[in-house]
Amino acid sequence: MCVSGKCLCGAVSYQVDAAPIFQLKCYCTDCRRTSAAVHAGLMGLPAEAVALGGEIREYRNCGDSGREVTRAFCPTCGAGIYGRNAVMPHFLFLRASSLDEPDLFDPQMIVFASRAPAWDAVPPGIPAFPELPPQS
Ligand SMILES: [Zn+2]
Ligand SMILES: [Zn+2]
Fold this sequence. Notes:
The chain is mainly beta. The protein has one helix at 29-35, and strands at 2-6, 13-17, 22-26, 40-46, 50-53, 57-62, 68-73, 80-85, 91-95, 109-111.
């Protein structure tokens, strides 16, 4: 599977030649604040499979998981490109909003569903966890 995407202004782009390992929608408070769309669609891939081009800025904070989360964005247009989290340091979670072909995104799981506001309810038919799935 070949995945490509870019930010709004095109200064940041990426190409991936690997299949996504996780595809999920995250309704956590921080994804709401950074996505402008309540939730973030996230496509998780091995970090080394993602070839990034352009200057990227990162913002780190403590996520709803209690662990550090990094969100990367274009410093020119502000579009979100990917996230990383300390729980799964070898994965990079591309923001589905940045995909050149958004229909490649096929979410299999919803996390932090308990944070969804009434005006953007969690869709039926996809396994939804109130917080993160139980760690095994
Ligand atoms: Zn940009
Ligand atoms: Zn989130």
